[in-house]
Design brief:
Number of strands: 0
Shape: globular
Structural class: mainly alpha
Strand content: under 5%
Largest sheet: none
Distance between the termini: 72 Å
Radius of gyration: 33 Å
Number of helices: 18
Order of helices and strands: HHHHHHHHHHHHHHHHHH
Helix content: 55-70%
Length: 350
């Protein structure tokens, strides 16, 4: 009687050869099962997450509802940009949207051919570039200056004084500048007493862009100081001590320790500022519109208000506002991509 390979003299095979899988099969099975088990183990069931975080979720519900009600539901009204909207075609303005005629992209074609729109866009971009160059670095420099003060009481007083104008309304800010730089202000009266007359910066159209930048610096630089001081407070003193032991002076410590610590915050605020490039202000320019003229003070925000509220051209104003919002979103995405190229997180991660 012939025996097959691996069989016993009685013709039966060993149990191990039948029950145990080969090493290759076992490795393949383990390779397939491990990722599934790991992924399942890392995922918390929805019921457990709800029981764990339901208090926090319930606390955020009012904020989410307010955000939806006042920020996202009004976006549906942008449909009037593609209509010839007439609020008097129906009993109320909401239902008038469903009865107004559809005109497609006619409002956008009209916007491209409007020279006043391009003039407002030019003023907006010039003011944004000027404020980005002059306004953005000032809070950083002031925060570094305040942070170098040794005495905590002096630092707190300086911080409070610089932050106080942030709570002022634009009416008060313009009034203060009028009393200082206006034709009847302190500087004009002092110069007139010494034989100089005609000083009035508040009505000078050529200097208006620098004037509104100075107003923005005086009003909102304190808020930026608070943000950068909070970032500086998180820097470990061990880094400064180590740099000092290596022979680094004050300027080199600021360049190699302080500024790298501020770089993520600078990148984040810069992305947000670039995304807000077409919104340089409304009330500030509207209050000074008559003093310097429309040519110098007309920006996109005041242009939308003038066309929509004053002239009643709601569809055209909605089209301009929609284009402004879309360009703002594109600028945020582009600036955030640039922040990623510099190695920073920006508004969101990659």
């Amino acid at each position: 009687m012939s025996l097959t390979a691996g069989s016993r003299p009685d013709g039966t095979r060993p149990p191990a050869a039948v029950e145990e899988p080969t090493a290759a099969v076992a490795a393949a099975v383990a390779e397939r099962r491990v990722p599934r088990r790991a992924s399942r183990a890392g995922r918390v069931p929805l019921g457990i997450r709800w029981r764990r975080d339901r208090t926090l979720i319930l606390m955020t519900l009012p904020v989410i509802l307010l955000l939806l009600l006042f920020n996202y539901v009004p976006l549906l009204g942008n449909v009037v940009a593609f209509q010839e909207y007439d609020p008097y075609v129906s009993s109320n303005g909401v239902t008038a949207i469903f009865h107004s005629p559809w005109v497609g992209v006619e409002q956008f074609s009209r916007m491209v051919d409007d020279p006043l729109f391009w003039s407002a866009t030019k003023n907006t971009l010039v003011l944004f570039a000027l404020q980005l160059v002059l306004f953005f670095p000032i809070p950083i420099a002031l925060a570094l200056l305040i942070n170098s003060v040794i005495r905590p009481r002096v630092r707190a007083v300086a911080q409070a004084i610089m932050y106080l104008p942030h709570f002022f309304s634009w009416v008060l800010v313009v009034t203060v500048f009028q009393q200082i730089f206006g034709g009847a202000g302190i500087i004009a009266q002092t110069l007139e007493d010494h034989g100089w007359s005609g000083f009035d910066l508040m009505t000078d159209a050529d200097l208006f862009k620098y004037l509104v930048t100075a107003q923005a610096v005086w009003k909102d630089a304190g808020w930026g100081i608070i943000v950068f001081l909070a970032a500086l407070a998180a820097v470990s003193t061990d880094l400064y001590e180590a740099a000092a032991m290596d022979g680094a002076g004050r300027w080199r410590r600021m360049w190699h320790v302080t500024l790298p610590a501020l770089r993520p915050v600078i990148a984040l605020l810069l992305v947000l500022r670039v995304g807000d490039a077409l919104s340089v202000g409304f009330e500030q320019f509207l209050l000074q519109r008559d003093a310097v003229g429309v040519g110098a003070s007309e920006v996109l925000d005041t242009y939308v208000w003038n066309m929509g509220i004053q002239n009643g051209d709601f569809s055209y104003a909605a089209a301009v506002g929609l284009v402004k919002g879309v360009i703002g979103v594109c600028l945020v995405l582009a600036a955030n991509k640039f922040a990623h190229l510099l190695g920073e997180q920006g508004v969101y991660q990659k």
